[in-house]
Amino acid sequence: MANEHENLEESSSSIVAPPPSPPWVELPWEVTMDILRRPGAIEIVESAQRVWNTWWKVCHNPAMWSVVDLKNEGDNFKMPWVLDKICRIAVDRSQGQLLKISIDNFGSIDMINYIAERSSQLRHLRVVKCYSNLVGGWAAAAKNFPLLEELHIYFTLITKDDIESVGRYCPLLKSFTLNATEYGNLIFPPSQCNDQALAIAKSMPKLRHLALLQNSLTNKGLLAILDGCSLLESLDLRCCCCVDLEGDLERRCMQQIVDLKRPGDSTHDYEFHSENQRRPSSDEDDDICYDYDYGLSLGDSREYDYDYDRL
């Protein structure tokens, strides 16, 4: 019996205790959410949620997806269909709690409508370099954004009718950015250079902040905005080369606008400074294919191992 007891003690002492849980597993959910949000939605779906069971649960909590940032750039560049799938996953997981979403370098009108139909609480929408054709599609989406307060559009086509639809269906809109750069100048003839400005003046009376970088508006369009958007506090007119701020118009702007950026002011602090300074070279044009039904696509046919339908 003594030998058996000694053997049991020896065997029990030889058992290796399981390693302690990593310290981040014990963090409060709110702290874990804050940490996991920082890499962005792409990293969450493709990697972070797979690290630990606790993280998997956190990454499926609707509160995790109230803010979604989908930047498709640099070393993390993905094909458009991949970003489309990840975006839909994020929207689905939010369960209607999505408040802010940023879409960079991909997108389609179908995806915008997918967001709109499931995100009636949305307050902030940013669309950057969406080369798919969104023209004429904003009206249907805007109807589902009654609480939208901020809309920021960069390097993406939008017409005066689209702008009027947004203004009509988004009565709480306070901040609007429009930087279509060369696309606007290519699509709209000089006779229509004030169409976007007039649409803003007509349909967005509650605007506090307006940025019209490299827009084709003239003094006529600017005056209409000052008349129609009397609550404006900030106005960015950088690179609007058809605006001549002199005399009465300049005095009007100085009196009405607290934060005024003039057409000739520096763009060095602007996020897309380099984009506004150059056109793509002919060699770059050869490398990029603009497919208006599918979005930006590259010649590189990358393959992905992820089964996004099962995440």
Automatic annotation (TrEMBL):
Residues 268-282 have a biased composition (Basic and acidic residues). SUPFAM superfamilies: F-box domain, RNI-like. Gene3D superfamilies: Ribonuclease Inhibitor. Residues 268-287 are annotated as: Disordered. Transmembrane segments: none annotated. This is F-box/LRR-repeat protein 23. It comes from Nicotiana sylvestris. The gene is LOC104243490.
